Amino acid sequence: VQLQAFGGGLVQAGGSLRLSCTASGIIFSIYNMAWYRQDPGKQRELVAEITSGSSTNYASSVKGRFTISSDNARNTVYLQMNSLKPEDTSVYYCAAEGYYWGQGTQVTVSS
């Protein structure tokens, strides 16, 4: 099983980024997928999740700014991040069922 995350980078506050995570080795359509983020020395935090039935859930800190979506044909889950804030700076990880994890992608938001 492999999850590969892409799309991190440096952006100014107020800007946007889209993260992608492509899965292989799993039947993607039956898995609940999620994005987490983690700062050094802190616990990993759930950012957004999407169930196999396409229900979504967001952390209160990102609700209204971030959108999670998935494309079963491409085995890919996305995180569209708008109106980014410096406090969104973190390493973002995708996960399948909280069991399989991607390698993380750095998002840095400058003020």
The total of beta strands comes to 11
Helix content: under 10%
Q: What multimeric state do the chains show?
A: single chain
Average pLDDT, all residues: 95
Describe the sheet with the most strands: 7 strands, mixed
Q: How would the global form be characterised?
A: globular
Give the distance, in angstroms, between the N- and C-terminal Cα atoms.
37 Å
Content of β-strand: over 45%
The SSE order reads EEEEEEEEEEE
Q: Structural class, from helix and strand content? A: mainly beta
Poorly predicted regions are none
Q: How much is the radius of gyration in Å?
A: 13 Å
Topology:
Elements: E1 2-6, E2 9-12, E3 17-24, E4 33-38, E5 45-50, E6 56-58, E7 66-71, E8 76-81, E9 90-96, E10 100-101, E11 105-110
Parallel strand pairs: 2-11
Antiparallel strand pairs: 1-3, 3-8, 4-5, 4-9, 5-6, 7-8, 9-10, 9-11
